[in-house]
Every structure is written in structure tokens, then in C-alpha cells.
Automatic annotation (TrEMBL):
It catalyses: IMP + L-aspartate + GTP = N(6)-(1,2-dicarboxyethyl)-AMP + GDP + phosphate + 2 H(+). Mg(2+) binds at D13, G40. It is an enzyme of class 6 (ligase). SUPFAM superfamilies: P-loop containing nucleoside triphosphate hydrolases. IMP binds at D13, E14, G15, K16, N38, A39, G40, H41, T130, R144, Q225, T240, R304. Homodimer. Keywords: Cytoplasm, GTP-binding, Ligase, Magnesium, Metal-binding, Nucleotide-binding, Purine biosynthesis. Plays an important role in the de novo pathway of purine nucleotide biosynthesis. Catalyzes the first committed step in the biosynthesis of AMP from IMP. The lineage of its organism: Bacteria, Pseudomonadati, Thermodesulfobacteriota, Desulfuromonadia, Geobacterales. It comes from the Bacteria. This is Adenylosuccinate synthetase. GO terms for molecular function: adenylosuccinate synthase activity; GTP binding; magnesium ion binding. Its main location: cytoplasm. Binds 1 Mg(2+) ion per subunit.
Length: 430
């Protein structure tokens, strides 16, 4: 038996959806443990592109239980729309396989309006949020003034809490942000309608997962965003509002850390990030644009162009350390097929010194410049490779060099968007 956590090892958008989809074959349940609909997982199944924002990508496999854990903040409107879209595609025919933690927190309309208005007010200090209300929802969770799913499905409790919290929110919106206030009756009616739909999915998911593990079932934990966006361990304040690292899988699901056996970090063969914040290997030249276009590096949730750069081994070594990675899944290797030479960052130059570890001080990090090692490209189409030996010699050498630099085995290599375009070197469930 093995329970496996999948985390982003960079700044998010690493291709976790595809890897989770592949690993789901070996799992009995898939758990989303943090974040909200500010994340998007894009999968290509039988030539059809499917984008999921909240529901674990394991939902595309029949008979697999999919759980949205207590660490997630849920927008009911988005969740219901996602269900509707899946059903229209012939998926999710059995509603009993999808469970929502009764303890997860609900994103309210005022969270979204506050999020957008604050970002607009920030000017040049913008974080680059998606405006989905994620941060304000987590603020209310920590401030002990959040509305949980168990509250939402009880009309009396929901009405009492909404009326109480709306006084403060309307004050902030009107007096500080210059926005229109919300009407209690309008929100109450709308969200009671959502509650009627959500009620059948509600469960004590932590208890159910405990029973599953005791019964010898295998659990796959699915994170959103990436290690460098973790609220504690990322490039603060240019981070998300939750624990994206492997430790978040325990707190965000109610499963003991002792029941987690493998942690797989997902990393692109290069690096991207969305929003503000330091990015030492970012490219502003033709190579950066080439990566963006070949890799279709535009946000699944927002459509924003992603910032692109060469692979950064310091970022990955950091991810190995803070997550306790037991393996790395390397994605989008095929995007580099058309490059004569490929650069890899092996250190940072700062004030005349070369750093070989990621600095925790954001001011230092923002002034670092990359020290590169240059490797020969392979100038060949690798999308049909199905085992490591199928890769050109230079592609094999590139993967092996990354493995040496990050100090962690690469257990999977993705050479295209489809499920089949995958080289599996080790199965973490076995």
C-alpha cells in the first residue's frame, strides 16, 4: 500500500493535472487538499481537452472516489458549473463518487469583489491575483469569520452568519474600497439555491479517508499551484493563500502525515510563472516567446500569458527539501525539441558571490541573476517516445543532468499533452 502526494515543484502550471490523471489508475481515491478555482488543470483525453478548476482530475476515471478536502475554499457557482459540464461530456454519471468536506469554506460574492477592488487599488504593488476571491476567503477562515459548507446547508445558521458578516464586509466595500454594498436577501436566496445542489455531495471526508486507509485503499493527494507559491514557503508576498507544499495534504484533508508514503513533485523542463514576483531565469527574448508559443503557456484559468524561463535547479532543490520529494515528474520536455542549445541555471550571482541555494529574503532573491550551464539540444521530435531509450542521446543527457542537479530521481517524463505521451520510469504506488 502507498499513499501519494502530488505537488507543484515550481510556481504552478507544471502539468499536475496530467500526472494526477495517470496516477489515478493506481489509486482508489483522489483528494484535492488546498486552493480554489484560482487553479486550472488541463487534460487531453482521447484528443479532447478538459479543464478542471475544483474537481480532482481523477473524476475522468470511473469508480474512483474524488474528494474536495477541508483545506479548499469552494465557489459553489463554479463547482456546479463544472459538474454540469462534466455530465454534458458523459462523465460523473454516479454522484456518489464525488464528496465535499463539510468543513471546507465557501467563497462568497463579497470575497470576489473585495479581491478585485483591492488589486485595483494596489497599483504597481499588485500581487497578480486571479480575482476569484481566494485570498479574502482564506482571510475569513483564519479570522474565524468564514462560512463553512456545513453552515451553508443549514438555512438558519447560514442566514445568521451571513447577516452578521455582511455588516463588516459592506463597511469595507463602501468606506474603504468605494464599492457598492451587497443586499442580504439577494445573497441568501442565491446561496440557498446552491446549497440545495451541494447537499448530496457533503460528507465527513476526513473520517471516510481514515476508513479507506484502514481498509488498505490507496489515496492520491492532489495539490494546486506550486511550492514557490506556498503562503509560508513561497516568494512571499507573491504567493497564494494556502499551503501548497506536501504538508498541506495532511492539514487540508484530515489525514495523518504518517499515512503519506511518497511525494512526487511536478516540474516543467523549463520554468513558468504567472503574476508578480522575482523570477531569475525569466526570458524576455525570442527564446522566451518561442517557449511560450510552443508550450501554449497561457493560463487555464485566466488566459494570461505566462512568464517563461530556463530550468532553475535551485528552485527544484528547494522543492525537494521543503516537500521531502521522493521523485520528480518532468513535463513538457517536447517543448524544447526545436532548440539548438538549452540553458540550465546552476546558481545565482548576487553581490559578486555565487549562491547555490534559494535565498529566503525576497529583496536578495529579486536581485539575483542566473549562472547558466549550456547543454546541446536534440532538434528532434520526441512526442512518440514511450521509453527512456527512445529519446535522443542529448535529451537523455538533459534529463540525467537535471536529476544530478536537483538531487532527486526523475520518475516520469512527459513528451506531449496526451495520456499516452508519457515515459514512466518508476510508479510511486508500487
Amino acid at each position: 500500500m502507498a499513499n501519494v502526494v502530488v505537488v507543484g515543484a515550481q510556481w504552478g502550471d507544471e502539468g499536475k493535472g496530467k500526472v494526477v490523471d495517470i496516477y489515478t489508475e493506481n489509486a482508489d481515491a483522489v483528494v484535492r487538499y488546498q486552493g480554489g478555482n484560482n487553479a486550472g488543470h488541463t487534460l487531453v483525453v482521447d484528443g479532447e481537452k478538459i479543464v478542471l478548476h475544483l474537481i480532482p482530475s481523477g473524476i475522468l476515471h470511473e469508480g474512483k472516489r474524488c474528494v474536495i478536502g477541508n483545506g479548499v475554499v469552494l465557489d459553489p457557482e463554479v463547482f456546479i458549473r463544472e459538474i454540469t459540464n462534466l455530465k454534458a461530456k458523459g462523465k460523473l454519471q454516479d454522484d456518489s463518487v464525488l464528496r465535499l468536506s463539510e468543513s471546507l469554506h465557501i467563497i462568497m460574492p463579497y470575497h470576489k469583489r473585495i479581491d478585485i477592488a483591492r488589486e485595483a487599488k494596489s497599483g504597481e504593488k499588485k500581487i497578480g491575483t486571479t480575482g476569484r476571491g481566494i485570498g479574502p476567503a482564506y482571510e475569513d477562515k483564519i479570522g474565524r469569520r468564514g462560512i463553512r459548507l456545513m453552515d451553508l446547508i443549514d438555512p438558519d445558521v447560514f442566514g445568521r452568519k451571513l447577516k452578521e458578516f455582511l455588516v463588516e464586509k459592506n463597511f469595507i466595500l463602501e468606506k474603504y474600497l468605494g464599492e457598492e454594498p451587497f443586499d442580504f436577501e439577494q445573497i441568501y436566496k442565491e446561496y440557498c439555491g446552491y446549497a440545495d445542489v451541494l447537499r448530496k455531495y457533503v460528507d465527513d471526508t476526513a473520517l471516510q479517508l481514515y476508513r479507506d486507509i484502514k481498509a488498505g485503499k490507496k489515496i492520491l493527494f492532489e495539490g494546486a499551484q506550486g511550492t514557490l507559491l506556498d503562503v509560508d514557503h513561497g516568494t512571499y508576498p507573491f504567493v497564494t493563500s494556502s499551503s501548497t507544499c506536501a504538508g498541506g495534504a495532511a492539514t487540508g484533508s484530515g489525514v495523518s502525515p504518517r499515512e503519506i508514503h511518497e511525494v512526487i513533485g511536478i516540474s516543467k523542463a523549463y520554468v513558468t510563472r504567472v503574476g508578480g514576483g522575482p523570477f531569475p531565469t525569466e526570458l524576455f527574448d525570442a527564446d522566451g516567446e518561442k517557449i511560450r508559443q510552443i508550450g501554449s503557456e497561457f493560463g487555464a484559468t485566466t488566459g494570461r500569458p505566462r512568464r517563461c524561463g530556463w530550468f532553475d535547479s535551485l528552485v527544484l532543490r528547494y522543492a525537494v527539501r521543503v516537500n521531502g520529494l521522493t521523485g520528480v515528474a518532468l513535463t513538457k520536455l517536447d517543448v524544447l525539441d526545436q532548440f539548438d542549445t538549452i540553458k540550465v541555471c546552476t546558481g545565482y550571482s548576487y553581490n559578486g558571490k555565487v549562491l547555490d541555494e534559494l535565498p529566503s529574503n525576497l529583496e536578495v532573491f529579486s536581485q539575483c541573476t542566473p549562472v547558466y550551464e549550456e547543454l546541446p539540444g536534440w532538434n528532434a521530435d520526441i512526442t512518440t517516445a514511450r521509453c527512456f531509450a527512445d529519446l535522443p542521446a542529448n535529451a537523455q543527457a538533459y534529463v540525467k543532468r537535471l536529476e544530478e542537479l536537483i538531487g532527486c530521481p526523475i520518475v516520469l517524463v512527459s513528451v506531449g499533452p496526451g495520456r499516452e505521451a508519457t515515459i514512466t520510469l518508476k510508479n510511486p504506488f508500487k
